[in-house]
Fold this protein.
Amino acid sequence: EEEEDEEDEESGDEGQEEEVYTIVQQGERIEFVAGADLKVLYDDGEWYPGVIVGWTETTGKFRIKLTDGSSTRFSEWLPNSDVKVVGCKRVTESTRNPNAIEPPQGPSKSRPGTPTSSAAGGGGGGRGGGGGGGGKGFF
């Protein structure tokens, strides 16, 4: 009986790990998985390293975590001009994975790259701190 349970658990885990996502980024179709590296453009004009933690089907947003030593986490629709997936594979219609998930696109930004509080100035102050409402601090 124990052997059967182990087999069921293993096959269930494999399906979870293999979700592949596909988007068109800068005119090219790409595929990637959770854990893919990316870069995020902040309002200080700097690109910061991050990783895709996962995708939330109900919102259509990807969960992103910065890997620059901060604890910054947020969710965002992809593709997005302020987020570039770099840990990906370029594909064509003939080489793409037919099972790849193509999330719906979110609303386009009306003013890309415009900081919400331009008077604040101080380079990088808006990206660091903890969780409270920092989801859009990078615009």
Remarks:
- The first strand starts at residue 21 and ends at 25.
